[in-house]
Amino acid sequence: MDVNVECTHGVVVAESSSFMADNSNENHWAPPGDKDAVGSGYKGLHVLNTLTKNKDAFVPKNGNRVNWYICGPTVYDSAHLGHARAYLSFDIIRRILEDYFGYDVHAVMNITDVDDKIILRARQNYLFDEYKAAALVGSVPDVAADIAAAIEGYGFEAKAAELAEQETPESVAKAKLLAATKSSAEAGLASLAADGGAGEAIDAARDVLAVWLDAAKGASVTDLDIFAAHTRKYETEYLEDMEALGVRPPHALTRVSEYVDEIIEMTAKIVERGLGYVSNGSVYFATGSFMDAGHVYAKLAPEMRDNAKALAEGEGALAADSSSEKRSLADFALWKASKAGEPAWDSPWGRGRPGWHIECSAMAGAILGDHLDIHGGGVDLKFPHHDNELAQSEAYFGCHQWTSYFLHAGHLHIHGSKMSKSLKNFQTIREALESYSARQIRLLFLLHSWEGGLDYSNNSMQHAKDMEKKLREFFLNVSTLVREETPARSQKWGDAEVALESAIAAATADVDAALKDSFDTPKTMHVLADLISAVNVYRSAVGDAGVKSYLLMQAARFVARILGVFGVIDPLYATVETGFGFGSGALAGTGDAGSSSVVVEILTTLSKFRDAVRAGARAKASPGELLALCDELRDEILPELGVRLEDRDTGVAIVKLDDRETLLAERDERRAARAAREANAAAKAAARAAEQAARDARDSTPPADFFRLPEFDGQFSAFDDGGMPTADADGEPLKKSKLKNLTKQLKTHVKKHNKWLARQ
Description:
Elements: E1 46-49, E2 54-57, E3 65-70, H1 81-100, E4 104-111, H2 116-136, H3 143-154, H4 156-166, H5 169-193, H6 198-204, H7 206-217, H8 224-245, E5 252-255, H9 260-272, E6 276-279, E7 282-285, H10 287-292, H11 308-315, E8 332-337, E9 352-354, H12 356-368, E10 372-378, H13 382-397, E11 403-409, E12 412-414, E13 417-418, H14 429-435, H15 438-446, E14 454-455, H16 458-484, H17 495-516, H18 521-542, H19 549-566, H20 592-618, H21 623-637, E15 643-646, E16 654-657, H22 660-699, E17 716-719, E18 725-728, H23 736-759
Helix pairs in contact: 2-7, 2-8, 3-5, 3-7, 4-5, 5-6, 9-12, 12-13, 15-16, 16-19, 17-18, 17-19, 20-21
């Protein structure tokens, strides 16, 4: 990195700079270039820019090339869908930039493998595993005493009181989690008292034990391989998750641990320029000096500039009270003096490690230089992380506009709260992919604006699945109709064809407008759905035997092209044979052997079906029995081969090559629905049988014993020789009106009893 390079993009620090607007955040952004200039790279696109809170014309600094830095994961645990919200959203935007607008995007993403969260989690996991192993072989004197001490030291009461004062949905969720943590630890302690196993008790108290062990022994963890092994594990998981989601890899992947030299050099340059200072072996960024030099601090979130809580969180969980070391509360660490139990590197200021914010500045600058066209990250990183990045980089490069466009992906919510590890309300990407396909998750994101909140629920995922089904049916129908067309079919256009062509043209224009409007994928998906509806209207108007396949293909290719841009389908396989990427593609195969085996399988199935029909005909089977064989072929057998057979009113079925797993899932749903209907019918039949049995038991009672049935218990105390009651429960003679009513009941019973006798 050339420390002498001045930012050739923005305005170099100068008293006359128009950027100097009393640090009020006004006039702090300038268009990167003249969008109307020849070779400007402007293509009509406007993007929602967090720096301005407006949709600004997108003008890359260097023509068609787009330099984009994305804040990557802090690899201290498994990635969850909240992380996927940012990375999958940015993958969609990147694909639009590259495959729709034709930009040459150079994407760089970091892996944060040096961070307070990582240090804590790696130490805690290591110490906990070590403790449990020792306990299981009897090397821990008193596990119960340790758990009790861990519970006592966790500070449940103080934490609960602090959360109660906040009165926010997040604090309520954290309070519930806190209570669950305490309950689990206490249950583990109780199980030991009841002679339970140490392993189960230790696992139940894991959260409190890990914190307690780290407080006592964290400083003794000095082996850097412990931290490296931890981060490599979760980095590998993350990259595998991104591949499973179909996210394009960046052009460069940077790890903090491999850029420490660049971080030290950037820090030194900032200090040399008078915008940073050394204090007790740490180095801090001087926000006051930065603003005095004509810069604006907290461009992205000026309202958060003095937020003590946010500023403290930005310094990390391991940061001690550094207020005495700082000139100002807003100053932040560029370089941290390492304490015992923390990774450390040699530096001009002593052994230490990078501050969180400068890590991204140094890595982005090392690869992309003194200017970024786009910087992306989750909305929760806006302040202080991204604002501090901007300040450091502008201080280092000596400019006022290091980044032209800041994109912030919205939160992903579950049950009304932000999905996060701190709330333990997350679902890992791998867990999500056990329930839904990568395509369905991508469709979910496409149906919501990238910058807004997104609620992850069964309901929202059902909308994504419904869209997938709509698209699949459209492409498979088009593929079938195209295959069915014969040279003899008329190609003359009528009003229906003209109307469909107009709908295709309108959809093309509307999609273009939507994508130019800050990558509006929900609007785009709506336009595609409307075009599919227009195709269905056309089919109804002319009938499947009258459709013009060239026109259908025009519509299908356009929809497939946009879905290919979005990463929903692979354009290489968007053919009629594969149902435009939504069918099984089995017959297309990946080679002659593969396709031959599938053909043989299908022919064998048809041969068996023919044998069954012939056998039924010879046995003089009824039409219903033969139709049942046809239904079995359609519903049970062909789905195994990835073939969907749909009956039509014309009497000619539609054959579709569909995704086998989808067909089998639909078959399982039909079976489950049929089983539920049968179970419901059986339950009703059993209830009817029970009711009939109860009636038969009553009707079989001899008339003389009728009023001695359980339903009359406690009502009468005396009876005549025929079994008729004569006195009530208290021994009082029955009134005439009562005797009249009882006589009527007995006569009715006698009739039922006689009918019962006749049935025997």
